[in-house]
Design goal:
The chain is α+β, with helices and mostly antiparallel strands. The protein is built from nine helices and seven strands. The mean pLDDT is about 85.
Length: about 350
């Protein structure tokens, strides 16, 4: 989050429109798809005014807004669709916790779109806001790139039941696409964890430890982003709002099951990451113990040898062995026997 923008926001009254995220798109772009069971119209534009005529449309409309840095555009959107100023503030505050708010004429949902950056080996997070009306769904994204193109293609080709359903079912499909993307991202994270495990078994190093802590941080981000979705979907399913049809409830229950699977996988990955860190620490400790054992054995062997060398290094005149011609070689032989004997003893004890 941009700390300079947060400072600008401090002290302002509730509902003040200040964008607190990082600008990912140069210009705001709108992808509008208006459809019914027999027809579909698609419009790509940069003017928010082009979406105003769809507010009370008899068909279903999906207004996808890419780029939320333009506070003036967000303000116009709120004025035309009667969106509360606090909701607009939450849209612009990209550090929101996933949540749902039910109003008389629309439902507001905030969640995180997560994707795996294979180049940087990190999880990219983007806030997505949904406004579900009687006949429209407004989605607001931070970036131009998204994962909704397959959904647009389904609408264009009229595949499945989506063209015959209303805005609530469209909102469900958007949530379902985001949830399915969680599984793809978790699969990539799982593969990365397997690579780390192989590296640790071959030989741990400081770089691997740094990567493990990055992975641990990513798992915390996932947990923070996914856990609140459980209550979001629950509230959406149990909502008594007339905007959610009873026929959509079974699909929302299925979506809830998918969220539970994602949460279980996140928790599993979290435990596995902690296990990998423990494996690294254990491997490092064992490696250090092996080194210390070798050094200790070497020091132990040299203790009696040093003792002998110390005795014969003293300047006494009455040392009979010094006058024996073979004393030097005999002493070396004794020292060799002592060292070899200690090595054999250590090997017998399986210390080597």
């Amino acid at each position: 989050m941009n700390m300079k923008t947060i400072r600008k926001k401090v002290g302002l009254p509730p509902g003040s429109l200040v964008f607190t995220g990082k600008q990912h798109a140069d210009k705001v772009r709108l992808d509008i798809i208006d459809y019914d069971p027999v027809s579909l119209n698609e419009l790509k534009t940069g003017n928010i005014e082009d979406s105003f005529s769809y507010k009370d449309s008899s068909s279903t409309t999906w207004i996808d807004i890419k780029g939320i840095h333009d506070t003036g555009l967000i303000s116009k959107l709120g004025e035309n669709f009667d969106i509360h100023s606090l909701v607009l503030e939450d849209i612009l505050n990209t550090n929101q916790r996933p949540k749902i708010e039910v109003f008389d004429n629309y439902i507001f949902i905030v969640l995180k779109m997560l994707s795996y950056n294979e180049t940087k080996k990190i999880v990219d997070s983007e806030q997505v806001s949904l406004i579900i009306g009687r006949s429209y769904v407004i989605s607001l994204q931070e970036k131009e790139e998204d994962i909704f193109e397959p959904l647009r293609e389904r609408l264009r080709k009229g595949k499945g039941r989506i063209r015959s359903k209303g805005a609530d079912y469209l909102a469900y499909t958007i949530l379902d696409v985001i949830t399915d993307n969680y599984f793809l991202m978790l699969e990539m994270l799982g593969e990365q964890m397997e690579e780390f495990e192989e590296k640790l078994l071959k030989g741990p190093n400081q770089e691997t430890l740094k990567q493990l802590y990055v992975l641990k941080r990513e798992n915390l981000l996932l947990r923070k982003s996914v856990w609140p979705l459980r209550e979001v979907i629950t509230q959406l399913e149990r909502s008594e709002s007339p905007l959610i049809m009873k026929k959509t409830a079974p699909f929302l229950r299925d979506l809830y099951d998918h969220i539970i699977q994602v949460i279980d996988t996140v928790e599993t990955h979290r435990d596995m990451t902690a296990g990998l860190i423990e494996l690294y620490l254990s491997s490092s400790s064992n490696r250090m113990n092996e080194v210390m054992k070798v050094l200790t054995i070497i020091a132990t062997i040299f203790i009696p040898l040093t003792f002998i060398a110390g005795i014969y290094g003293m300047n006494f005149e009455n040392m009979p062995e010094l006058e024996w011609p073979w004393a030097y070689f005999a002493l070396l032989f004794v020292m060799l026997l002592i060292g070899a004997g200690m090595l054999l003893y250590f090997r017998k004890k399986k210390w080597l």
